[in-house]
Give the backbone structure.
Amino acid sequence: MKKFASLLLTALLLLTGCAKEAPVEPSLTRVGFSQLGAESDWRVANTDSMIRAFSEENGYELLYDNARQKQANQLVAVRNFIVQGVDIIVIAPLEETGWEAVLQEAKNAQIPVIIVDREVAVEDTELYLTQIGSDFLTEGLQAVGWLENALENRQEDVNILHIQGTYGATAQIQRTKAIEDAVRLHDNWHFAAQLAGDFTESKSYEMVRDFLAENQDIDVIYSENDNMTFGAMRALDEAGITYGQGGDVTIISFDAARRALKLCMEGKINLCVECNPLHGPRVDELIRQYLAGETIPKQIFVEETVFTPEILTPELIAARQY
Ligand code: GZL
């Protein structure tokens, strides 16, 4: 009897408009984000930016996976996102190749994919919505242009120690292309060695330490990220080799993370090439544009600059976000 009375009362309240409809929670956009690892200051800043952007306050439910620098882990993560039926997949790919199958599976599941930071090399660009990141070749060309000016048509041999990032990553491929093309162009520029630093401080330290044990005739270090630069500087210190402004070795470093900018301001790094990691708000905006039915460019490059000791101040560095 009580149940009937309760149902009757509810019906009356609804019919008379007295019952308050339970507020309908706006549905959250479910994003699956596959991050490649946590190998560098840059990557930590990038992850922080992405996680802040995909907050519940911003209207997202974030499924996050750190692949610990293994593409196989990224492929597992993306497949999990597909099974869980997320609305959007965002991938920061470790390397360019090996993505066709899983991107096709996402397409078959009608889940759009945004590529952030590095790029994927696939024939069919319809397998992803857009790629947003840095123009890594332009970064390299800015470094080479600065070095050409710094050397002021020096005729003697220029021995370059090239510390490369993770092989097959767009940042490595294109920063390498810039310096390799320049070495081909300048008859007196030579590679003392090209070392595999994998974008990490520890690997770079080991490789440079072992190299310096055999050969200390270097004029320039072209290091494809700041953390490898920090490792190289430790090895140079141990070998008693000076570097930076007025030193024996000129150092060029990519990323322009705060730690590197401070060393640059002190004259210990000659050139910091910015590689901006703050993609969270950018990807958030792209998702909103997509959900609003707007057309999105297939590739988006972010604006970046370079820093030398002359232009750096404590205030400028303090104002930087990473
Ligand atoms: C560049 C990014 C690179 C950084 C490194 O966008 O992919 O990966 O330059 C990071 O610090 O490891």
Remarks:
- The radius of gyration is 25 Å.
